[in-house]
Amino acid sequence: MKKQQGFTLIELMIVVAIIGILAAVAIPQYQNYVAKSQVSRVMQETAALKTAIETCLLEGIVTEAGCALGWTESNLLLGDGESSRTTNVEGLKIAMAGSGIASITANFGQQAATALSSKNLVWSRDAKGVWSCSTNVDPDYRPASCGAAAAEETPTPS
Questions:
Q1: pTM above 0.70?
Q2: What is the pLDDT of residues 74-93, one digit of tens each?
Q3: 152, exposed or middle or buried, with CB in 10 Å at 0-12, 13-18, 19+?
Q4: What is the pLDDT of residues 1-38, one digit of tens each?
């Protein structure tokens, strides 16, 4: 008599249950990892613009229109990906003032993680030439070297 070989239905159901439990734990952790890495990537991409802005300020160019940044668009920022490579592409805003104050604002969108939608990352330069990073992304995704964005202040009537 020949013995049948194979798995019983109960054994297969146990394996499927174990895979389901592992997937339920692994998928959210992976999504958190992706969001955190995207914030770090945008932080590094926009940090590269600081050098170009510093060069412009040292050369006496105090407006963003006159400053050639050499920016390559990011698929993580807002915009359709087809806009021209200028300083004011949608999703990346550059502001420069005559006193050496400048800012770089990157708005998350397009292919960024869902947890990052409507969030942004801002590099600010004060009159002393010191750059600082701030962002309004959740603390779980925020890089250690980039602080929380200042709370929105309600304007007081004059």
A1: yes
A2: 778 766 544 444 333 446 78
A3: exposed
A4: 777 788 899 999 999 999 999 999 999 999 999 999 99
Give me the DSSP letters along the chain.
Answer: -PPP-S--HHHHHHHHHHHHHHHHHHHHHHHHHHHHHHHHHHHHHHHHHHHHHHHHHHTT--SGGG--------TTBSS-S-S-SSTT-TTEEEEE-TTS-EEEEEEB-TTS-GGGTT-EEEEEE-TTS-EEEEE-S-TTT--TTSEEPPPPPPPPP-
Closest by CA to 43, choosing from 98, 108, 125, is 108
Give the side-chain half-sphere CA count within 13 A for 147. 8
pLDDT for the residue 6: 85
> In the predicted model, what is the mean pLDDT of the chain?
81
Contact at 8 Å (CB) between 105 and 111? no
